[in-house]
Amino acid sequence: MLDEEVKDSKKAGGWKAMPYILGNETFERLAVFGLSVNFMVYMTTELHLDLVSASNILNIWSGITYFAPLVGAFISDAYVGRFRTIAFASFASLLGMIVVTLTSWLPQLHPPPCTPLQLASNQCVRASNSQMGVLFLGLCFLSIGSAGVRPCSIPFGVDQFDPTTDEGKKGINSFFNWYYTSFTLVLLVAQTVVVYIQDSVSWTLGLGIPTVCMIFSIIMFFVGTRVYVYVKAEGSIFSGIAHVLVAAYKKRKVKLPGQDKQDGVFYDPPLTGKVILSKLPLTKQFRALNKAAQIMEGDLNQDGSRVNQWKLASIQQVEEVKCLAKTFPVWAAGIFTLISMVQLQGTFIVSQAMKMDRHLGPKFQIPAGSLGVISFITIGLWVPCYDRVVVPALRKMTKHEGGISLLLRMGIGMVFSILSMIVSGLVEKVRRNSANSNPSPLGVAPMSVLWLAPQLILMGFFEAFNIIAQIEFFNREFPEHMRSIGNSLFWCSFGLANYMSTIIVNTVHHTTKTHSHPDWLTNDINAGRLDYFYYLIAGTGVLNFVYFIYVARGYHYKESVGLQDNPHDVELGS
Q1: Which residues pair with 277 in a beta bridge?
Q2: d(CA 425, CA 406)
Q3: How does residue 98 score in pLDDT terms, banded at 50, 70 and 90?
Q4: Cα separation of 35 and 26, whole Å?
């Protein structure tokens, strides 16, 4: 691979690289989601774990998987670059897929099978510690893979376009559209075809298909090596953050100048680096940090460079730290918002579906893990309509580029999330009463599983408004070379939501049990009170919504003084 100038980088990348990048991402997501989307059922029906244990394992693993991208983003930006990070992580994901598939294929790695009646009466042999250890090993490799792929996939795609040209800007916008479209299609396939094979044909085949998809993902990624644009690692932003905080602390007693005396007072050198950056202006938010860029006697050499970077930071560095600081409250609100999504789509709705009539016609039975497809169909139908019809109409009224602001879209999504949990509680109360009024050996209520559709449709609207707005928010509000960190923070919010879910589940599990009644989340949901749990999540959602309104009212969006086109080092496929 050769180092070239920016003008030569335009010969590679662009739409020529998109078939390989989107193909790689499509197969990679199909592999990972094909395994994880039905994993709750796998642990309860094949490994014979109880409901709470399976839920905790899923939440903890999901939390690690979502939190790990922060480490991957740091390694990518500081040392090895996005291409090498994705390449290494893809092989780790493949190894994890192989190990998990072996737990289903080899009899020594899973407990002996049992009938549905034995499973319902808790008479099955649970997976041994050694069998669970092999499973955990596979999950660890999958987490390592996600650590590299998730924070780098979107930025690597954006790297292929030149943001200083109109064609490049249009390409970036189209890339996001194709990314969301392929993401939705992958989830539809994973929650229908793959889940059906896992439930109705064979778990070994159902896990083997995602493994083969991971192999295709790696092949697609490396086939495109000659047409990619390779942006070298810029260096870790964390050192710059440390410089700002230390310099601001050392100058904590320095008085800031008035608004009319700021020219030449703050250190504002031309940007130099390996990426094209938007130069950030000095703002009034977190004014104490501005002291880090205030020039004092002895701070500069005769050529205008800094004497000590721990005593003087640039305006750009200060504003980058502010980007992190001001987005943190919004990010925190997103964590609590995602708890409802984690609980509804990932854990207990599967248990509800298994206790309902899942037949469509005399022969076909809807897999319990496929119900989430209702949310994705909602997203697939609503997002194009919103983009093509609603946004233009709103733009005429509000004069806002996106129709409404990103924070308003997040708030609307939060309302749908709260409504979804309330509806979930109401439907669960009806399901539970129906099951207890019509007892059967398996505890299945004579009630169609499609009763769960309304809450999933509401959750689909939550994702269409809140999740997509969050992704766009972190990509827009973070400086260009911090976007890997921004994407990793988004995934971290999912991880922390899973950890919060685990804490809530365990707390409810241990505090709601009485001498005359089991806990709300007992393994037999017909004896528990899952509806109360849903109402509890809705209540926390209301409190979080009030907090979000307070945060959003005081938020100021990122400003820039235009693009600064710097020479930046790239590598082109030789």
Answers
A1: 564
A2: 29
A3: very high
A4: 14
Q: Report residue 398 as tokens.
A: 């509000």
Report d(CA 50, CA 387) in Å as an integer: 43
CA atoms within 13 A on the CB side of 57: 21
Is there a contact between 137 and 61 (Cβ–Cβ < 8 Å)?
Answer: no
Q: First vs last Cα of the chain: how many Å apart?
A: 5
Q: At what angle do helices 203-223 and 81-105 cross, to 10 degrees?
A: 160
The residue type at 149: V
Tell how strand 229-231 and strand 570-572 pair up: antiparallel
Share above pLDDT 90 across residues of the chain, in percent, rounded to a whole number: 17
Both tokens assigned to 270 = 């031309």
Residue 162 has which token pair?
């030149």
Choose among 45, 180, 188: nearest CA to 469.
180
**Could you give the CA distance from residue 204 to residue 449 in angstroms, rounded to a whole number?**
26
Q: In angstroms, how far apart are the furthest CA atoms of the chain?
A: 87
| Between 275 and 115, the higher pLDDT residue | 115
Handedness of CA 104, 106, 112, 116 (dihedral sign): positive
- Tokens representing 177? 């559209």
pLDDT at 566: 42
Distance CA 152, CA 170 (A): 20
pLDDT at 170: 64
Instruction: State the DSSP string of 372-431.
Output: THHHHHHHHHHHHHIIIIIHHHHHHHH--TTSS-HHHHHHHHHHHHHHHHHHHHHHHHHH
**Phi, psi of 563, rounded to the nearest 5 degrees:** -80, 140
**Which of 265, 331, 264, 251 shows the shortest CA–CA distance to 70?**
331
Q: How many CA atoms lie within 13 A of 288 on its CB side?
A: 8
Give the SS3 label for residue 356: strand
- For 201-223, the DSSP string reads I-HHHHHHHHHHHHHHHHHHHHH
Residues in a beta bridge with 365: 359
Query: Under a CB-based contact definition with an 8 Å cutoff, are residues 451 and 500 in contact?
Result: no
| DSSP code of residue 266 | B
CA neighbor of 488 nearest in space, from 96, 17, 77: 77
Could you tell me where the DSSP H helices lie in 291-385? 315-346, 348-354, 373-385
DSSP state letter for 112: P
Q: What is the dihedral of CA 405, 410, 416, 417, to 10 degrees?
A: 180
Q: What global pTM score does this model have? A: 0.74
What whole-number distance in Å separates Cα of residue 305 and Cα of residue 463? 47
Alpha-carbon span 252 to 436, nearest angstrom: 66
